[in-house]
């Protein structure tokens, strides 16, 4: 398989810790588990970070689109949630593969926008690059260094 790494991000987790230090270019941030899960609660948990990345990408995509169109989008607020749902018609519901990962994005778009503009922005919200990646049938390959 031919692969090209576009961005290099380093994640470091030290011995006996659930705290992950993320180094992305000039930026460093923490991802951790809550106290009740054995972490030290020094940062968002991995799913919160994933939802945050999706929400940020969605908001940035909406802002860029509205600015390009000259639309009066004053404020963007996005609430996100993640859960595992069972397929409605699953025959083997006890199998882990019968569960569906579901992310819900609730968009609050403020400004003097028409119903047509709001509907278009709702459609654009589903076109952010992070959402496209998550929805694409993503493949992840792990290799030992």
UniProtKB/TrEMBL annotation:
<dbReference type="InterPro" id="IPR003718">
    <property type="entry name" value="OsmC/Ohr_fam"/>
</dbReference>
<dbReference type="Pfam" id="PF02566">
    <property type="entry name" value="OsmC"/>
</dbReference>
<dbReference type="InterPro" id="IPR036102">
    <property type="entry name" value="OsmC/Ohrsf"/>
</dbReference>
<dbReference type="InterPro" id="IPR015946">
    <property type="entry name" value="KH_dom-like_a/b"/>
</dbReference>
<protein>
    <submittedName>
        <fullName>OsmC family protein</fullName>
    </submittedName>
</protein>
